[in-house]
Amino acid sequence: MNAKWFTLLILAAATAVPCLQAQSTHAGPDSSTPNYLLFKVSELSWDDDIAYVTDVAAGRLGLDTSGGIQRDKATAAFKLTEGYTINKNIAVEGSAAYVDDSKFVTTDTTGFDTTIRLQTFTADLTALGVYPFTDKFEGYGQAGIAYYRIDFEALTQTGEKRKTHDTGVEPLYGLGLRFKFNEQFMADLQAQQHDLGEFGISFISLGFGFRF
């Protein structure tokens, strides 16, 4: 089911922009350059991450978590977004994000520490409602769906590597502000919430991009 939804998500992202380009003859003030590309760097906050990682470590990785789990490394994400402006109030975007290693450490009853590494990938498709404050400055709200994959890896005391992963398709939503330096270049500040199964990720992203 997850693979089916992911396939539909990619197909929708691949066909949405050409269809909109064919149907729209006026895209507001950016009609000459309706397409845009943004590169974003994000700081992440995992909601209820300790409880989630503890459940995975004990239940699926078979680790002794009696000594508790501590977060060992903060996480950053890198996101690439392509968008299309339908008119001054509506846009659509497709994004892919890679979350750098998140590390957690669990201690067993013998005092041995085991590091658990998480790597996360997301791909999403969203619709934006845009409100222009001025010709250069605008705010937006967005909602859509996202595919995600979270890979877990742990190295046990005996040197054994244990792996598992989670995948799914879930809703996402966010708010943002965008400043246009000129007709081509822009900056973007975004807050976004992904609901990933039993927990969530909050993204605070700063990006720069251009229209083409």
What are the salient characteristics of this protein?
212 residues, alpha+beta, Porin, eight-stranded antiparallel β-barrel, 2 helices, 9 strands, 62% strand, elongated, disordered N terminus, Beta-barrel_OMP, OMP/PagP_B-barrel, signal, Outer membrane beta-barrel protein
CATH topology: Porin
What class would the helix/strand composition place it in? alpha+beta
Q: Biggest sheet: strands, sense, closure?
A: 8 strands, antiparallel, barrel
Q: Termini distance?
A: 36 Å
Q: Tell me the radius of gyration.
A: 20 Å
Give the domain tally: 1
| CATH architecture name | Beta Barrel
Q: Topology as H/E string?
A: HEHEEEEEEEE
- Report the β-strand fraction as a percent range: over 45%
Tally of DSSP helical segments: 2
The low-confidence runs, each spanning 5 or more residues with pLDDT under 50, are: 1-17, 19-29
Q: Strand order, biggest sheet?
A: 1-3-4-5-6-7-8-9
What global shape is seen?
elongated
**Arithmetic mean pLDDT:** 82
What report would you give on this structure?
Residues 1-27 form the signal peptide. This is Outer membrane beta-barrel protein. Keywords: Signal. The protein has 212 residues and is α+β, with helices and mostly antiparallel strands. It has one domain: Porin (Beta Barrel), CATH 2.40.160. 16% of the residues lie in helices and 62% in strands. It contains two helices and nine strands. It has helices at residues 2-23, 49-59; strands spanning 35-47, 69-73, 76-87, 90-107, 113-132, 137-155, 161-180, 185-196, 199-211. The radius of gyration is 20 Å and the shape is elongated. The model is unreliable at 1-17 and 19-29 (pLDDT under 50).
